[in-house]
Specification:
The chain has about 180 residues and is of the alpha/beta class. It has one domain: P-loop containing nucleotide triphosphate hydrolases (Rossmann fold). It has seven helices and five strands, in the order E-H-E-H-H-E-H-E-H-H-E-H. The protein has helices at about 20-30, 45-50, 60-75, 90-100, 115-120, 135-140, 160-175; strands at about 10-15, 35, 80-85, 105-110, 150-155. The chain has a five-stranded parallel beta sheet, sandwiched between helices. Helix 1 (about 20-30) crosses helix 7 (about 160-175) and helix 3 runs parallel beside helix 4 (about 90-100). The protein is globular.
Amino acid sequence: MLQATEVRSIVVMGVSGSGKSTIGQALADRLGAEFADGDSFHPVENVEKMAAGQALTDADRLPWLRTVGQYIRGVESEHASSVVACSALKRTYRDALREQVPDLFFVFLDGSREVIHDRVVARNHEFMPPSLLDSQFASLEPLEADERGMRIDITSVPDEIVSHIEAELRRLNVETN
């Protein structure tokens, strides 16, 4: 993945059930960064649509992504760091976030459909039913080589995943100083 400058703002991305909120919160705690769950920025209409089992369209997602990007930019304007859990499934979605914060770093939590399906079925999410998982995998576009970020397999325990991310961030920060 493309790397440049010190990492200040991180988006933990992936399909529903990949562990974005768990990993994002743990990473923010370790880094002393602000944490936000991108789901909290969805307008009521999006939440109602997903709760009804309807997949969001790009038109539904773009205003939400702009709001998430504005939040990250606001944290940076206060000279603080942030970690945001946000699906960011498509390149165009990540591009929308980068319009607000060009040097965003993405952590792609990657796992098999089977592992993620089992997680989604075992949890209780207020508006993301398991029936929408297929649409998320259909939309997923993994990070490309020119995108600033890293891919990590989700089969390890959260503490190990966060330690691996931290090690990569330290390596990148050393390279840029």
